[in-house]
Amino acid sequence: MGSVTEIQIKEAIANFKYEGRLLERKPYGSGHINDTYLLTFEIEDMGTLKVILQRMNREIFTNPVELMENIVGVTSYLRERIVENGGDPNRETLNTIPAKDGKPYYVDSKGEYWRSYIFITDATSYDLVEKPEDFYESAVAFGTFQRLLSEYPAETLHETIKGFHDTKARFETFKRAVEKDVCGRAAQVRKEIDFVLAREETANVFGDLLERGEIPLRVTHNDTKLNNIMIDNKTHKGICVIDLDTVMPGLAMNDFGDSIRFGASTALEDEQDLSKVSCSMELFELYVKGFLEGCGGSLTRREIELLPMGAKVMTYECGMRFLTDYLEGDHYFRIHREGHNLDRCRTQFKLVEDMEAKWETMRNIVNKYAD
Prior knowledge:
Elements (H helix, E strand, L loop, with lengths): L5 H9 L6 E7 L7 E8 L5 E8 L8 H21 L4 H4 L13 E2 L5 E6 L4 E2 L7 H17 L18 H14 L9 H8 L2 H12 L6 E3 L8 E4 L5 E4 L6 E3 L1 H12 L17 H15 L5 H5 L1 H21 L12 H18 L1 H12 L1
Antiparallel strand pairs: 1-2, 2-3, 3-5, 4-5, 6-8, 7-10, 8-9
Helix pairs in contact: 4-8, 4-9, 5-7, 5-11, 8-9, 8-11, 9-13, 11-12
């Protein structure tokens, strides 16, 4: 893709339906995937308006047109639901700004795709759980997202990354990586390989239930980290779910589970001292309470029962992906030291073991909030 040139940025700015005079432009956010800028416009006597301008990453999202179809479909639907509920559609969902030709994206002279959103003011997204209330607020927000989209026809959405949470398929990919052992690393990580192989049932559980029609396909976010929620600066409530690039058909339990994997762990994702790694039951309970509150009865009884399994499956899948990448020579996840992906996979597997040890506690917590 290469870095963005000044000419490209100016060309993109000139081709969106912006009003007023551009006062300021600066790089924005901590995301690693797209190139993001915050623009401030002066609109005559009405003061200023901030907007986000982004170049989309075509190496990861190979079909930006389909991706933007998903986002426009979902955000237009959310706007309607938010208005019906007496909310503020300008703050509670993303609002795309069309290009001058009316499309929700602009293709520049180098063939790169750009998009633009109205910036949500007086709200912040946090990279790390600074206080438990933030984690709870993110749970309510992702649960609300699930509830508002519970009637949306999930099967009409495009898969922006094929098989993203197809754990069954990822298990097969893993087995091939072990077999080929292109870097000659398998012998030293037998214990980790056996950990994955011993849990084939975990890899298959959701795929099998979906095939049998026991769980529904839902509109899912697929990247339910805390920093994808805007938290209002005054009320400290989660107001808006952002970064909708991975919105696709999926499972509610996976969205729940990825939050637990990331947010309820007592250590960083690449912690080398595994004695520090566990799944906090206090944070798990906070998240269950908030998520089910946000979902407001839109999940089936079976989906609710399977929430602990969602946490286990997502953590297992993530660990398996780190280990696959380690065996294949670290080409997918960026590493900052030798064996980085191995450290990451070990923290995930330690979390899985900890969840298995606390399984009854997790189920009891879910039952407590299920009704």
